[in-house]
Design a protein that fits this description.
The protein is mostly helical and 146 residues long. It has one domain (5-145). Helix content is 65%, strand content 0%. Helix 2 crosses helix 4 and helix 4 (77-97) runs antiparallel to helix 6. The two termini are 13 Å apart.
Length: 146
């Protein structure tokens, strides 16, 4: 049930980073809420119906939950990887759907997009955790738990 020793550094780094970002947003200002909401609605138009303050709280809660899952050893790699892949995938999608963040016809970031383009590392970690153990025979302890 506990993560492999090899996964602890990536789970800890990503989890601490995301948890901290969520805690910082939790009591964010109205200006910050409007800025983040504006950026998100450019990539995900359905978010226009959500108030900026509500969006910021929801984003903060998602980050806190994802970060906590990564930092909690009893959460399986696959579960933590699912959360992280969904979260990071939405950030990478936002990056690709926002023309000002990357060079025309390219995945390479503009100066404005560098910060968000780096979120691809979290997607890689999430996918790695998600597929952890696929193709391996179940352990005896896994059989007893079923």
């Amino acid at each position: 049930m506990f993560p492999h020793l090899r996964d602890i550094p990536t789970r800890a780094a990503a989890g601490a980073y995301i948890l901290h970002a969520g805690l910082e947003k939790w009591n964010g200002s109205e200006d910050r809420a409007k800025a983040l909401h504006g950026m998100a609605t450019g990539a995900y138009p359905f978010l226009e119906k959500v108030a900026p303050a509500t969006f910021l709280k929801a984003l903060a809660a998602a980050e806190i939950g994802t970060g906590a899952a990564l930092l909690t050893p009893v959460v399986s790699n696959r579960m933590a990887g699912t959360f992280l892949t969904a979260f990071a995938g939405s950030l990478v999608t936002m990056y690709m759907r926002t023309p000002a963040l990357h060079k025309p016809g390219s995945v390479w970031p503009t100066q404005q997009g560098t910060g968000i383009s780096k979120d691809v590392w979290m997607l890689g970690i999430g996918l790695g955790l998600l597929v952890d153990g696929i193709g391996q025979a179940p352990k005896a302890s896994d059989k007893q738990a079923r």
